[in-house]
Design a protein that fits this description.
globular, YjbR-like_sf, YjbR, Aspartate Aminotransferase, domain 1, 25% strand, YjbR/MT2646/Rv2570-like, alpha+beta, 119 residues
Length: 119
């Protein structure tokens, strides 16, 4: 997955925005003010921090120990750092980004979730 594809994917979700609260290099993708992906799109290899169900996080780390690791500077139970340099199938990376977005949306209030369904 290229940096351009990763950015486009993150911004394709309803109400997703890209912000730079830490520095100009670190893209933070949020939905309704809540972080669902964090990356430096210029880094090599390209990595992205994504929220993950704790049980899935452990399983994914075991299945891909060199490519999916506990989230760098994040809560290690709920976040993974995923290497998105083309080694993992793009389909899997897309699924992990979507899962992260869905987990964050699920944590929003009912009113916020309802607002996401409106144009």
């Amino acid at each position: 997955m290229t940096p351009r594809q990763l950015r486009a994917l993150c911004l394709s979700f309803n109400a997703a925005v890209e912000e730079f609260p830490f520095n100009p290099e670190t893209s933070v993708f949020k939905v309704r003010g809540k972080l669902f992906a964090l990356t430096n799109l210029d880094a090599e290899p390209l990595t992205v921090n994504l929220k993950c169900d704790p049980e899935d996080a452990v399983r994914l780390r075991a299945e891909h120990p060199d490519l999916i690791v506990p989230g760098y500077h994040m809560n290690k139970r709920h976040w993974n750092t995923v290497t998105a340099d083309g080694t993992l199938p793009d389909r899997l990376v897309r699924e992990l980004v979507e899962d992260s977005y869905d987990l964050v949306v699920a944590g929003l209030s009912r009113a916020e979730r309802l607002r996401l369904d409106r144009p």
